[in-house]
Write a structure and sequence with these properties.
Elements lengths: L3 H10 L19 E6 L4 E3 L4 E8 L3 E5 L11 E5 L5 E8 L5 E11 L4 E7 L3 E2 L5 E8 L3 E5 L2 E3 L4 E4 L5 E8 L5 E10 L1
Parallel strand pairs: 2-7, 9-15
Antiparallel strand pairs: 1-3, 3-5, 4-6, 6-7, 8-10, 10-13, 11-14, 12-13, 14-15
Length: 189
């Protein structure tokens, strides 16, 4: 038992205590960082929804200007946007260390998408040489092509007297070179 006090003294001197030493350091908070901020489509036709995506690290708070959606720190997140005009979006990330990081993205609003609708035909089954009339409506177009047969752009109708089964094709071109197409098949018996 005479060696027990000497062993305890040795243990205490050798640093077996729970008090942190002066050389132990607390890790510093990392600065806020925006790892990604983008729009998958930087040109969106008016009236069409697009997306805005972001990702951040070491951030405790985010701000989006203009505020179109609530944003919060996330490694990756996308949300829908519907700008009515070309918009400059700014994302700012704030860190616990007082740092901030800012990124911007521009989304341009383009011409509306062309649309063919109300496609109709007098009959989809006719005898050879029988009159067929194919009519349709269009929106947001700069030009329309339709055929075969005689296409009258004043009423958007094709007239034809097919001798064999025929596919009538309609193509509508929009302001930003977008295209909408439609077809109707008339069988000749």
């Amino acid at each position: 038992m005479r060696y027990l006090p000497a062993v305890l003294t040795t243990l205490l001197i050798s640093g077996c205590n729970t008090t942190p030493s002066a050389t132990t350091s607390v890790p510093k908070p990392q600065p806020a960082k925006i790892t990604q901020f983008y729009a998958p489509d930087t040109k969106i036709p008016i009236g069409v929804k697009g997306n805005l995506c972001y990702g951040v690290e070491h951030s405790s708070k985010l701000e989006l200007s203009p505020a179109v959606e609530d944003v919060w720190p996330a490694m990756t997140r996308c949300f829908e946007i519907s700008p009515k005009q070309t918009t400059h979006y700014t994302l700012t990330a704030y860190g616990d260390d007082g740092s901030k990081d800012t990124k911007t993205v521009d989304v341009t609003v383009g011409a509306p998408v062309p649309r063919i609708h109300d496609l109709s035909v007098t009959s989809t089954l006719v005898h050879p040489g029988e009159l067929v009339i194919v009519c349709f409506k269009v929106e947001n177009t700069t030009s329309v092509k339709a055929g075969p047969g005689h296409f009258d752009p004043s009423n958007n109708c094709i007239t034809d007297n097919p001798k064999k089964t025929t596919v009538y094709r309609i193509s509508a071109l929009g302001g930003d070179r977008q295209i909408d197409t439609g077809t109707v098949t008339v069988k000749v018996q």
